[in-house]
Each structure stands twice: as structure tokens, then as C-alpha cells.
Write a structure and sequence with these properties.
Oligomer: single chain
Distance between the termini: 42 Å
Low-confidence stretches: 89-98
Helix content: 10-25%
Radius of gyration: 16 Å
Number of strands: 3
Structural class: alpha+beta
Order of helices and strands: EHEEH
Number of helices: 2
Largest sheet: 3 strands, antiparallel
Strand order of the largest sheet: 1-2-3
Mean pLDDT: 79
């Protein structure tokens, strides 16, 4: 364990979420099961559920108290691809045609 400063709103688009549960996924299992290296102190689990604690003044769509799911593929929420719910289109992935 290591003491670190509490998270805080730094940008108008920031959202602070109190994590209530997390999970490891397939990419974490490689490290968990010893098939790849795991740096000492690395924390696994990047798919989370939580409750919005605080939002920046430019945030729309979520409010304090909302329950949220935070998968690894989070989009910006504002671009054309996000508006039509094609989140993976933001990334340059040659084999993925959306």
C-alpha cells in the first residue's frame, strides 16, 4: 500500500467516481496467471463500477450520485463517432472497420 493524494477535479471535463467494484478481464489474466510479467505493485482491474462523486463544470450527461460503468473503451462522448455510438472508431485500428 502507498499513500497518494486524493483525486480532484483538474479539468472542466473531469469526473470523480467512487469505485464500488472492479473486475479483471482477459488482458489481466495473462499477468495474473503468470504468462506475462507483472511489475511489483501493479494493480489489476480496469473495468469498474461506481458512483459519480463530483463533476467538472463542463460535464454533461452524468451528475453526482449517478451509478456508472467504466469499461476500458471510453470515448470522448462528443465526436461524430460517439454520437452514433461507434466508440471504437476513434482509434486507428486497421483490422476494425466500423
Amino acid at each position: 500500500m502507498k499513500d497518494v493524494p486524493d483525486a480532484r477535479i483538474e479539468q472542466p471535463t473531469d469526473v470523480l467516481v467512487k469505485i464500488t467494484s472492479t473486475n479483471i478481464c482477459g488482458s489481466d489474466l495473462h499477468m495474473y496467471e503468470g504468462r506475462t510479467d507483472l511489475e511489483p505493485g501493479m494493480v489489476l482491474g480496469h473495468e469498474n463500477l461506481g458512483i459519480v462523486a463530483e463533476v467538472g463544470n463542463a460535464v454533461v450527461g452524468v451528475s453526482p450520485g449517478d451509478r456508472v460503468c467504466l469499461p476500458f473503451n471510453i470515448g470522448c462522448g462528443f465526436c461524430r463517432n460517439c454520437e452514433v455510438q461507434q466508440l471504437f472508431a476513434e482509434y486507428q485500428v486497421p483490422w476494425l472497420q466500423v
